[in-house]
Design a protein that fits this description.
The protein has a single domain, classed as Alpha/Beta hydrolase fold, catalytic domain (Rossmann fold). The protein starts with a strand and ends in a 16-residue tail after the last strand. The longest helix is centred in the middle third of the chain and has 22 residues. The protein is of the alpha/beta class. Strands 3-2-4-5 form a 4-stranded parallel beta sheet, sandwiched between helices. Strands 1-6 form a two-stranded antiparallel sheet. α1 links the parallel β2 and β3. About 25% of the residues lie in helices and about 15% in strands. It binds 2-acetamido-2-deoxy-beta-D-glucopyranose (NAG). 2-acetamido-2-deoxy-beta-D-glucopyranose (NAG) binds next to loops.
Length: about 190
């Protein structure tokens, strides 16, 4: 599987998470009003049903490995072409708003972002900036460095904005995504 990591940081938190595949109970998956030690934002891929989507299997491993951790799914339409670009804009706003809401309530929680496909793109656009309005973004990060100070890991699989050869890429993919975004970087 392709494993991508753009403009980031550390996988220290995640490396503990891969040994167990035991399911996480539903009660651990609710958004909580109390502040968790570790909180996950999970963004599903294009055309997946609302919720965590297929990347939820990775989120479950991280939740299971971090007792008390909580998660929230990014609430966006995840629509395909021909409205994909518009939908990316909606998704970036959803990531930005949900991230701002959680970090203002819980400034000390450790944060993890996990996205697949369009979900990877909107998270990385919010954090790192996106190419331009032609690609659905506004070109600059919409999550500030101060808001992101407690991010421990960001994982994006199957990002359509993937550009081959970037220093933050992980794994074996050596081709571009469908719409490579080259001017990212923190
Ligand atoms: C990926 O896309 C970038 C930007 O369009 C381009 O410069 C680069 O040559 C492409 N790389 C591959 C391997 O297609």
């Amino acid at each position: 599987m392709v494993f991508l990591m753009r403009c980031l940081i550390s996988l220290g938190l995640l490396t503990t998470g891969f040994v167990s595949a035991a399911p996480v109970s539903d009660s651990n998956k609710q958004t909580t009003t109390t502040c968790a030690p570790v909180h996950l934002f999970v963004a599903r891929g294009t055309s997946e049903s609302p919720g965590d989507g297929s990347i939820g299997s990775l989120a479950d491993l991280v939740l299971h490995a971090n007792p008390g951790a909580t998660q929230e799914a990014i609430d966006y339409p995840a629509l395909p072409f021909p409205v994909y670009i518009t939908d990316v804009g909606i998704g970036i706003k959803a990531v930005t708003d949900q991230f701002a809401r959680y970090t203002s309530s819980c400034p000390d929680s450790t944060l993890v972002l996990i996205g697949y496909s369009q979900g990877a793109q909107i998270m990385l656009d919010a954090l790192c900036g996106s190419g331009s309005i032609l690609k659905g973004g506004i070109g600059i990060p919409t999550i500030s460095e101060a808001q992101g100070k407690n991010i421990a890991a960001v994982v994006g699989y199957g990002d359509p904005g993937h550009t081959a050869g970037e220093s933050w890429n992980q794994g074996t993919a050596n081709t571009n995504g469908s719409g490579p975004i080259t001017d990212r970087g923190l």
